[in-house]
Amino acid sequence: MRRLVLVAVLLLAACSGSGRTDQPASGPLNDADVAFVQRLLAQDHQATEVVELIESHTARPELRKLAEDVTVSRGDEIVKLEQWLQRWGKPIQPEGVDAETLPPGLLTDQQLNQLDALTGTKFDTAFADAFATLHQEAVKLAETELADGSLGEVRQLAEQVRAGRQAEIGQLARWKQAWSQGS
């Protein structure tokens, strides 16, 4: 009988897995979750603003496709982030940030104006650099959320943001390399 009980316990333990799930650990909403969502929202708004320049500044099909993809994906992300903040009763802007103060990691008006003044290959490389900079900041935000955040759905988004933005950074670097070789 003991052997049967032991086998049953071992089978139950095996079926339950190692305790890991595909979902990140979840706890109550905390300040890190809110800060991540607010800052990512500002990043997403600026990313959609920056990719709007592509249509009138370059003919590269890869950048035009990127602009389409970013417009859709960041648009969906913006809706989700705004819904979360509304559900939590939190403001869209982080405390201490207003129309005159940019959250850290965003491009300045001067940088945006410089980008807007370029066309062709100069625009392409400057865009890739600027967009990679935005993405690097988004990766930092995601890593901070993963270290300090608590709410599972927000942590899951942070994992997606980190992986997606890192992939786009790599793609931008490969494109710049190809462009410099005359492709």
Distance between the termini: 73 Å
Radius of gyration: 21 Å
Mean pLDDT: 85
Tell me the structural class. mainly alpha
- CATH 4th-level superfamily: Ferritin, core subunit, four-helix bundle
**Number of beta strands:** 0
Count of separate structural domains:
1
Question: What does the model show?
Answer:
The protein has 183 residues and is an all-alpha fold. It has a single domain, classed as Up-down Bundle (Ferritin). 73% of the residues lie in helices and 0% in strands. Helix 2 packs antiparallel against helix 4. The longest helix is centred in the C-terminal third of the chain and has 29 residues. The N terminus is likely disordered.
Question: Could you provide a short overview of the structure?
Answer:
The protein has helices at 2-16, 31-51, 54-57, 61-88, 109-116, 120-148, 152-180. The protein is mostly helical and 183 residues long.
Helix and strand arrangement:
Elements: H1 2-16, H2 31-51, H3 54-57, H4 61-88, H5 109-116, H6 120-148, H7 152-180
Descriptors:
single chain; 183 residues; mainly alpha; Ferritin; 7 helices; 73% helix; 0% strand; elongated; disordered N terminus
